[in-house]
Specification:
alpha/beta, single chain, 685 residues
């Protein structure tokens, strides 16, 4: 991570003054929808007895059912070790390999079955169908290269900055084969953001791709690798090698030149490893499988460390029971593998179950809003998984498009943000053709897999509500004093989970104190206790629980903005603005948006004497994009004469958020400078 440069203060506040949960819309209670009979008849989980087997008095024994879905070299001695709370250790003593479980073990029965359908964005480029046998060959060859050419061994970290191509799961599984910890950075993130993650994880190798297609353009991606290496060097961190996959093997897709002795074209080097086989390394179950960086309450993104055994068991069970994946299914999750959803529910879960998983390179509505439905028709996709933002965009651009295509979904998922009942109903009626069951799955990067969702063949669906805890997960809502808010209280509070679960992250990479502080300190009953019951997990989301036990998630209660299902730290955005020498103060607030859920508005004040101009606004916006990436681009940069402040000098984000959301800022008479409020109102667009 970049060392703290001498930057100006972002703000002195602790915790969010205005949270997403506070600006949440209040939807009315909706009626229930039942799963179709045909769906129930074929579903993996129809036994209601699961809830009796998975009660807290039987914890943690019930998680054996999860681990039983995997092949182990050596069985665990202990399901759960709670010796050092809240650093839970799952399946202790067990030995396992994730690559073996996602590839090798399927060869006997499924070697000629498609593991990955790679769909390029350009429609005239052929879809690639990679069988399990081909996946096996390619993972082995790359693992040989990583071991022999790069000298990588178990426990080493490697940063991946790859787009949505088949080579990405191949690279992840090659790392997993060696016990190498991969850290995939979302390809839309900037070179600088990639550098921060390289230095924090101390990755000696960066694996990238020269270019990729997005919204009709072939983007130069190699350029970002050069920026990443240079930025890491500024922080005193030097990489050994940059491995560059070619989007079009045999020719370069990037005008950025290769650096002699540092950059290597993967396909050129792979020639030496043709036909090589690498025995999967028999890893301890609690060894880390990967890091996934995400935004939290302070400026730096944190590396969530996920285990091999616990994580894989969790995503495999939830893929089978909540996603209802069978080996014969064609499953398409339209998320990006650069996020946790893609790790768990494009790569590890579906492949552990020998399903065919679709990897689509581009944007959903390119070249038009019929694209996803054409892909579904062509590949026979029967399970579909996406975010409310994508659903809203597809609905806006082509509300009647799905009806034009002959695909059939038995099951659909929504994840990442609250979904409005009206949008849910369009998804159900038009995309699901009134037949598909829908699961609204609530969880986070930290959690590895789903926490709340209906079980698709057992529960009725209710638009706008995620549902109860999934089997084995026991949520609770606490108010600020730590009192439980019962179902049907009508009150919102902080949603927590009473029990540990195998998919939960093990720690924050190199920052165990923050792990304890951020997720456990607030509701821990006794910091000395070794009893897991004293350590509820705090998710950082506001929620309400209806009488029927279903949870409705309202949004973040901390300094995180969920933009189109992507988590961004307000402090990260503010720091990026403050890099511009013109800016003296910056404050970011979440604004409700009809497509993206929430978007950031960035308020700034300038050095005395400087005049507001469009040029400065653009410069500030560009700084946010180069520090973080285009997804963090503010909706508006609003240059204000002064920030609304308390008498002690704190910026009142609540007032700014109210103005941006066209709400009443309430009583502002106690501010040090109440007169500024009307001036800011006049500026806001
Ligand atoms: C939000 C994504 C409402 C929530 C898997 C959470 C949701 C954050 C839902 C995690 C949902 C996720 N309904 N809100 N079904 N799913 N969220 O880490 O605020 O990228 O804390 O993980 O997204 O985002 P993350």
């Amino acid at each position: 991570m970049a060392k703290d440069k001498p930057r100006r203060q972002v703000s002195d506040q602790q915790g969010a003054e205005i949270s997403e949960a506070q600006i949440a819309v209040h939807w009315q209670e909706e009626g229930y929808y039942s799963p179709a009979k045909d769906f129930i008849a074929q579903a993996n989980l129809t036994d209601k007895g699961v809830f009796k087997r998975f009660t807290l008095d039987k914890f943690p024994g019930y998680y054996k059912e999860f681990a039983a879905l995997l092949d182990w070299y050596k069985k665990w001695d202990k399901i759960l070790d709670t010796g050092k709370p809240p650093f839970w250790r799952w399946f202790v003593g067990g030995r396992i390999n994730a690559s073996y479980n996602c590839v090798d073990r399927h060869l006997a029965r499924h070697k000629n079955k498609t593991a990955i359908h790679f769909v390029p964005e350009p429609e005239n480029e052929a879809i690639q169908h990679l069988t399990y046998q081909e996946l096996f060959v390619r993972v082995n060859e790359l693992a040989a290269l990583l071991r022999e050419f790069c000298g990588l061994k178990s426990g080493d970290r490697v940063t991946l900055h790859m787009p949505m191509v088949a080579e990405l799961p191949i690279t992840m599984l090659a790392c997993a084969r060696l016990g190498v910890i991969h850290s995939q950075v979302f390809s839309g993130f900037s070179g600088k953001a990639c550098a921060d993650r390289i230095t924090d994880s101390e990755s000696r190798v960066l694996i990238t791709m020269d270019g990729y297609y997005r919204a009709g353009k072939l983007l130069d991606h190699k350029e970002k690798a050069d920026i990443a290496v240079a930025e890491a060097a500024k922080d005193g961190f030097k990489l050994d090698k940059v491995l560059v996959w070619q989007r079009r093997p045999g020719r370069s897709s990037s005008p950025t030149p290769m650096v002699e002795g540092r950059d290597f074209v993967v396909n050129d080097v792979l020639v030496k490893y043709r036909g090589k086989r690498v025995e999967p390394v028999q890893m301890p179950a609690e060894a880390p499988l990967f890091l996934m960086y995400t935004s939290g309450t302070t400026g730096k993104p944190k590396g969530c460390q996920h285990s091999i055994g616990g994580y894989l068991a969790y995503v495999t069970w939830t893929s089978k029971m909540i996603q209802d994946i069978h080996p014969e299914d064609v499953y398409w999750c339209m998320a990006d593998i650069g996020w946790i959803t893609g790790h768990s529910y494009i790569v590890y879960g579906p492949l552990a179950l020998a399903a065919s998983s679709v990897v689509y390179e581009g944007v959903p509505n390119y070249p038009d809003a019929g694209r996803p439905w054409r892909i579904a028709e062509e590949l026979g996709v029967n399970i579909f998984h996406t975010s409310p933002t994508a659903i809203r965009a597809l609905r806006k651009d082509g509300p009647d498009e799905p009806a034009k295509y002959h695909y059939h979904f038995k099951h659909m998922t929504t994840v990442g943000e609250p979904i409005e009942p009206a949008v849910w109903k369009w998804y159900h009626k038009m995309v699901g053709k009134g037949e598909a069951v829908i699961v609204d799955t609530w969880w986070q990067t930290e959690n590895g897999g789903f926490l709340c969702s209906t079980v698709p063949a057992i529960h009725k669906m209710k638009p706008g509500s995620a549902g109860p805890g999934i089997p084995g997960i026991h949520p609770v809502i606490y108010d600020d004093e730590g009192k439980e808010l019962p179902a049907g209280s009508g009150k919102a509070g902080n949603i927590c989970i009473r029990n540990p679960w195998p998919g939960g992250f093990q720690t924050i990479w190199k920052d165990p104190d923050r792990f304890v502080k951020q997720y456990y300190a607030r509701y821990c009953r006794n910091p000395k206790s070794k009893d897991w019951r004293d350590w509820p997990y705090m998710a950082g989301d506001g929620a309400v629980q209806a009488k029927d036990g279903y949870y409705r998630i309202l949004g973040r209660i901390d300094d995180v903005i969920n933009v189109a299902g992507h988590r961004l730290g307000t402090k990260e955005i503010e720091s990026a603005a403050l890099i511009c020498p013109e800016v003296v103060e910056a404050a970011v607030v979440p604004v409700a948006d009809p497509i993206k859920g929430k978007v950031p508005d960035l308020y700034v004040s300038l050095k005395p004497g400087l005049k507001a101009s469009e040029e400065i606004e653009k410069k500030i916006s560009a700084s946010v994009v180069s520090e973080i990436g285009a997804i963090a681009r503010p909706r508006h940069v609003i240059i204000v004469p002064d920030m609304p402040k308390t008498r002690s000098g704190k910026i009142m984000r609540r007032v700014l958020a109210a103005i941006s959301n066209r709400q009443d800022p309430g009583d502002v008479s106690t501010l040090a400078n109440p007169e500024v409020v009307d001036k800011i109102k006049a500026l806001s667009r």
